[in-house]
Amino acid sequence: MKRWDTVAIVGVGLIGGSVGRALLARGLAGRVIGIGRRASTLRKARQLGAVSETTTRLAQGVAEAQLVIVCTPVDSVVPLVREAAAACPPGCLLTDAGSTKARIVAELDAGLDQGVAFVGSHPLAGSDRSGPEWARDDLFQDRVVVITPTARTRVRDVARIRAFWRALGAGVVAMSPRRHDETVAATSHAPHVLAALLAGATPRRYLPLVASGWLDTTRVAGGDVETWTQILQQNRAAVLKSLDKFAKVLDAMRRALAEDDRPAIAGLLEAGKRNRDAVGN
Amino acid sequence: MKRWDTVAIVGVGLIGGSVGRALLARGLAGRVIGIGRRASTLRKARQLGAVSETTTRLAQGVAEAQLVIVCTPVDSVVPLVREAAAACPPGCLLTDAGSTKARIVAELDAGLDQGVAFVGSHPLAGSDRSGPEWARDDLFQDRVVVITPTARTRVRDVARIRAFWRALGAGVVAMSPRRHDETVAATSHAPHVLAALLAGATPRRYLPLVASGWLDTTRVAGGDVETWTQILQQNRAAVLKSLDKFAKVLDAMRRALAEDDRPAIAGLLEAGKRNRDAVGN
């Protein structure tokens, strides 16, 4: 039995494509309509089994959807959700997959068209890759999806959005948009900045001699620059706070090295190992 | 045909164990003698096929070796090489696998016992794991090993050490100890520090929400603290220089975020992506 007749996905890259593949592979949706601007990307997504139909016209794509997921860079989420809300049927549930939530939810929480609901989502999955060719039907399996309902959100819609992500194999955690943004500033956005700065600061002539340590530490720096610039700008206050905190421990380590202070050097490494070991691989 | 009758490995952890496994798996050595302090580790190494014989007595273990590889934390390399040089046969070649070279080579370059040669090595391979249970016979396959001969090193011994690492599947690059240390400060030691500081600076309550970005960026922070403290102390001048440079780009990014300077944010991310993409995965 299909859980949804028609699901529309706006933006069929790694995340949108993986949502579609998971829905189709698990037989959860009758139709998955891929909506995007580029015909070539849409064609690729359909060929890869990420969507069953495609269109470049958003209003047409969402006209019969019970569920719309906007999976675009964060600056496009608000206008696209508004556009979808104006064209989808009453009772339709809208969500997104953006890495920031405070601004998006604040703008959309003021209310959409009658009978249409938006609940923010952020699947903590993804990679430095982009495009539907990297989409996987198990991308959300055993991953965490943060949803960010507010005081205005109806309990029924929270249950619907939870059920959606759970159907794709994910665990769902609810928190406020602000708390979400503070958390991912520390766990994702600041790490991305540090990886990019480290990669950029490495002299070119040394690159042939990097090994797995550098490769791991800088991997996310390969991510799309436009996507990440938007994320960092939307969440800049919280990211700055995380980076300020990092700058303090960096100063402490530089002082420890300058003074050849063995216990201080070891102590800073130990604090890192403790947290890293607490998480596992 | 065996290329070496007897090879001695001092320290049978990840690196020493992998040297032994590679030698035995490729039929390159008649006997591989594992030397260490702990009988339990030596037993494990033998059971895993990393060595064919073991002893806790260094002088006895190297007595018939044509080749001795010291694979211990960097602070132990010099005393162990000296001890081995005093007990091994004339014509024996000694090397190490330490992540720092300047101090080690400077102390040993003054000369060992007559007819015994030391050439520094650093295989750019390894991981955040330690112990013989992680040893692999292909750890050096298609990896780079830096060797650090000096003006005193005999050409014959450079050729011998090159041939050794090449036989294990690695490519070999020769450079001065100082240049090696400056390079790995940027490509390995500073990245390790940043990964550890990032892991340590992440609030504990956020750890359940980390995803692949944090996991990759902090992976090396799980490495052994004692091993890394020694490396950082031995190479602290070059590491400090790398961290000072990093602190400057970190300041630039904090300023760009504080001023919401989109081109500056994107430019810093772009510089990182350019270097990261130049290397591949």
Of all chain pairs, the largest interface belongs to: A-B, 85 and 85 residues
Reading the helices and strands of chain A in chain order gives EHEHEHEHEHEEEHEHHHHH
Number of helices of chain A: 11
- Tally of strands of chain A: 9
Strand content of chain A: 5-15%
- Which class of secondary structure composition applies to the elements of chain A? alpha/beta
Q: What is the strand arrangement across the widest sheet of chain A?
A: 3-2-1-4-5-6
Oligomer: homodimer
Structural Rg of chain A: 21 Å
Low-confidence stretches of chain A: none
Measured distance between first and last alpha carbons of chain A: 37 Å
Mean pLDDT of chain A: 95
Specify the overall morphology of chain A: elongated
How much helical structure, as a percent, in the residues of chain A? 40-55%
Largest β sheet strand count, sense and barrel closure of chain A: 6 strands, parallel
Q: Overview of this structure, please?
A:
The structure is a homodimer of 281-residue chains. Chain A has 281 residues and is α/β, with parallel strands linked by helices. Chain A is 50% helix and 14% strand. The first copy, chain A, contains 11 helices and 9 strands. Chain A has helices at 14-25, 39-47, 58-61, 77-87, 102-109, 155-167, 177-201, 212-218, 225-234, 236-258, 262-279; strands at 4-10, 29-35, 53-55, 67-70, 93-96, 117-118, 120-123, 144-148, 171-174. Chain A has a 6-stranded parallel beta sheet with strand order 3-2-1-4-5-6, sandwiched between helices. The first copy, chain A, has a 3-stranded mixed beta sheet with strand order 7-8-9, with helices on one face. In chain A, helix 4 (77-87) links the parallel strand 4 (67-70) and strand 5 (93-96). In chain A, helix 7 (177-201) packs across helix 10. The longest helix of chain A is centred in the C-terminal third of the chain and has 25 residues, at 177-201. The radius of gyration of chain A is 21 Å and the shape is elongated. The mean pLDDT of chain A is 95. The interface between A and B is large, with 85 and 85 residues.
